[in-house]
Amino acid sequence: MLTPEALRAHLVGARLAGTVATPREESLRSYRLFAARDPRVLLGLDPEGAWSQRDLIQLMADRCGVSANSRRTSGQDVIDPERTLAALDAFAERLAEAARRSTPVLLGTGHPHRLLGFYAALADALSAAGCEVLTPAQGRCVDITTRFGLRTYNLDYVRGVALVQGSGVERPGCETGAHTHSPLPVRTVLAAAAEAGGPLPELVIGDHGWVCGAGQLGFEAIGPADTDDPAPFVGEAEGSVSVVVPFDDGVRSDYYLPLTRYVLNRACLSQ
Question: Cβ-count burial of 76 within 10 angstroms (0-12 exposed, 13-18 middle, 19+ buried)?
């Protein structure tokens, strides 16, 4: 069984926490854009309060452990591993509750190349515990504005995890899919589930637009976020997102395996 001490060492060693690869400049830019309500960084969230850049720096210092000094404008960001561990424990509690109640769940990611394995293991464990892992809107088209203009993507599910593929791409191997921060995929999935009259998720697990988009629509949502993505943490502070786990979301996919083992053990869902 992976202990908190062992996981703490892994978090720092793999740079999931501690000094991470995310540049301070990138995070400050995101906070500035969020304060201006730029939809590219809102991730589907409609904040209730007025958040200034200074407010966001303080929030991210509280939730992640980044520097609260607004004059620190360069270097690498820092995530406090103790905050990551505490959030992982809260994340595991939500998984355990879903398993106890055998509730329908939805999992989705905008970072399939990095995080698909993390979510897929959760999907397997929750399914084994009696939860229905929902897969509505398979193959549905979603038009998403990117830096290259409007592009059409297809909704797909790999190992029970929703993601988007470029239109016209054949069904891939399990470590593929497009990177997106858009909330449109989760909105499309939830609308399709409602239209079909089938079950709606009682827990949504995901990142970026998946967690913020679902939380904004009133679904319980949990997931990870990096220091340059303030939206999930604002959602958590305002109550639309239940749990956000601070860690670097861009490291090697196998570095997330110990986190998977840890939360499944905590949730008594180990297989």
Answer: middle
Q: Which of 122, 139, 119 is nearest to 192 (CA)?
A: 139
Tokens of residue 62, six digits? 């509280």
CA distance 186 to 43: 11
pLDDT by position in tens, the chain (length 271): 789 999 999 999 999 999 999 999 999 999 999 999 999 999 999 999 999 999 999 999 999 999 999 999 999 999 999 999 999 999 999 999 999 999 999 999 999 999 999 999 999 999 999 999 999 999 999 999 887 788 999 999 999 999 999 865 444 444 468 999 999 999 999 999 999 998 999 999 999 999 999 999 999 999 999 999 999 999 999 999 999 999 999 999 999 999 999 999 999 997 5
Whole-number Å distance between alpha carbons of 132 and 5: 33
Query: What is the C-alpha to C-alpha distance for residues 218 and 191, in angstroms, rounded to an integer?
Result: 13
Q: Taking CA 195 as the corner, what is the angle to CA 190 and CA 201, rounded to the nearest 5 degrees?
A: 35
Report CA torsion sign: 271, 14, 44, 189.
Answer: negative
Amino acid at 214: A
